[in-house]
Each structure stands twice: as structure tokens, then as C-alpha cells.
Amino acid sequence: MAAPARQEWSMSDFEIGKHIGGGKFGKVYLAREKQSGYVVALKVIYKEKLEKYGFHDHLRREIKIQQALDHPNVLRLFTWFHDEDRVVLVLEYAARGELYKVLQTAGRFTERTAATYVASLADALAYCHKKHVIHRDIKLENLLLDIKGQIKIADFGWAVQSNAKRHTFCGTIDYLAPEMIKGTGHDRAVDNWALGILCYEFLYGSPPFQVEDLENTLRRILRMDLTFPSTPYVSSGAKDLISKLLVKDSSKRLSLEDVMKHPWIKKNAGPSGSCIKQREVKKAKFI
Ligand code: N15
């Protein structure tokens, strides 16, 4: 007997809700699967655009990688389908939305919030690295929060969200590791570098090497012009962790396992998979 046919999904399986994101290739909508009532994010990508930019193979590769990842802090790609004009990705819905907006509102996070996010990210990245997936594009704009306040890496990759622009136009270069700027070849340690940048950004509200123009940001990264503005809100333990991740020699950066064992993480992070209550985030603004 023939195997039962794989269920083919189509747009008619979903009730489409509001528009929650967009980009060069298409839009993201809140949606509900009709039979189960399960709420998801549908990313609708127009084939015409994929063709125009020659991104078909790239998308296929990304889907394959993304579908093999199953970690509580990596946004799930449940399935995908296509019709004549569109490719539709069925993605996990992160109810509390984009982390960069939350940080913008809060100004900065408490050490407890920052350490919990860093621990979750280190765990997620260690999982990816074990599967030989190097993320390469860890940055604030790629992070979402689910309903419980758990952080989720959502790889927007090439599908840069046009509505996710931050104050700095060149948001991307803030996370570039020195070896990526020099083009001398890079490995998984670029993700550890980016984690150090994020940790700094969580605590200070802006990334460490940010200046007005692109060239000077690159220069500061290459010179390792890292300073910690004096503030009572960032402890020496946090600075120690950041300094051990933002190391020019990629082989000397703290491993993700050691990030999770770092005393500042041990002291401040909630247990793995723990949640940050919204009011914890809001509180940081007033301290
Ligand atoms: C290349 C591909 C196979 C990789 C799959 N990953 C992506 O396509 C990455 N991606 C994720 N692109 C868009 C999204 C995305 C998922 C964008 C927004 C959301 C999302 N899930 N939940 C949201 C979301 N929730 C929100 C709540 C409030 C305000 C905005 C929100 N966006």
C-alpha cells in the first residue's frame, strides 16, 4: 500500500490576521490554523522577487537548515508551502515581538534580564554549533520574545526587515568580528563575538563600537577600542564576561560552554528556559 500522502498545506488552511512585519521579499502576517486554532506567523514571499534577486537556492538551503533546528530559543519554522506566485513559511509566532523595540523602550536591561538572555542565546548557539550551523548574523534585530518572555533567534538573514530599522542605519556592521572585516576567514567564534556585542548592548543600550559613520565603526572594531562607560548598573562581572568574548584572536574567545559557567551568568541568569516578566523589563527604565 502506498504511504499516505504528506499533508499539503495551502493558504486556505489559515485565517489571516494583521500584518506584523515586512521586507524586501514579502510580508509577515499573524495567522491561525483553522483546524487546530494554533496561532503562527506566516511569511509570504513572492516568487517574482526571489527570481529577480536569484534567491531561490538560498531560500531552499535556509529552509533545510532551519527545519532541522529544534531548540526553545530558536524560532521554529514549522513547515512551508507554495502556490503559483508565492512561497509561504509557517513560522512560530512570538507574541511579545521584537527585542530591539523592547530595549528601545526600556533604555537598557537589568543584569538579571541581560544575563538570562545571554545564557539562553549561548545555549541556542551551542546547539546550532553542535549541528554545524554557524549563525553569522546574531544581532538585536534578529531577536524576538515569545508570550512568556523567552528569547528567540529568528534568522531574518537576507530578508532584511524594512520596518526594523534602528536609529543607526548600518545596524549590521556593529556586530562584525574583526576577522570578518579583514576577510581572513572565520569560524563559529564569530557568533561568540556577536554574543559579547549583544551582552554589552543589553546592559548599556547601544553596541560598544557604534559611532556615526561606518568607516569609524570598522576602525574601532579593528583597534579593539572597547570602553565601559562608568555606570553603577553594570557590575565588574558583566564587564569581565564581555571582555572575554570581545577578544580579537578568535581562538581565545570564551567558549559558549564557559559563558554558561561564567560567575556573572551563574549569579544573575534565571534557570535555563526561564522567563522574564514584562514588568522586570519595564522596571529597568526607572532604576
Ligand atoms: C530563510 C528562512 C527559511 C528562514 C526562516 N526564518 C525566517 O524567515 C525569519 N523570519 C522570521 N522572517 C520573519 C520572521 C518573523 C517571525 C517576523 C516576525 C515575527 C515572527 N514571529 N512572530 C513575529 C512577530 N510577533 C510580533 C508581535 C508584535 C509585533 C511584531 C511581531 N512580530
Q: How is the topology of this model organized?
A:
Blueprint (H helix, E strand, L loop, with lengths): L13 E9 L3 E8 L5 E8 H7 L2 H12 L9 E6 L3 E7 L4 E2 H8 L4 H20 L12 E3 L5 E3 L24 H5 L6 H16 L9 H10 L12 H10 L10 H6 L1 H6 L9 H6 L4
Antiparallel strand pairs: 1-2, 2-3, 3-5, 4-5, 6-7, 7-8
Helix pairs in contact: 4-6, 6-8
Structure classification: alpha+beta
Ligand types: ligand N15
Q: CATH class of the largest domain, please?
A: Mainly Alpha
Summarize the biggest pleated sheet.
Answer: 5 strands, antiparallel
Tell me the count of domains. Answer: 2
Shape: globular
What's the N-to-C terminus distance?
A: 67 Å
Question: What distinguishing features does this structure have?
Answer:
5-stranded antiparallel sheet; 2 domains; Phosphorylase Kinase, domain 1; Transferase(Phosphotransferase), domain 1; 287 residues; binds ligand N15; 16% strand
What does this structure look like?
The chain has helices spanning 47-53, 56-67, 99-106, 111-130, 178-182, 189-204, 214-223, 236-245, 256-261, 263-268, 278-283, and strands spanning 14-22, 26-33, 39-46, 77-82, 86-92, 97-98, 143-145, 151-153. A five-stranded antiparallel sheet has the order 1-2-3-5-4. It has a three-stranded antiparallel sheet with strand order 6-7-8. The protein is of the alpha+beta class and 287 residues long. The chain contains eleven helices and eight strands. Bound molecules: ligand N15. Ligand N15 binds next to strand 1, strand 3, helix 2, strand 5 and strand 6. Ligand N15 binds at residues 20-21, 28, 41, 43, 59, 62-63, 66, 75, 77, 89, 91-95, 97-98, 144, 154-157, 159.
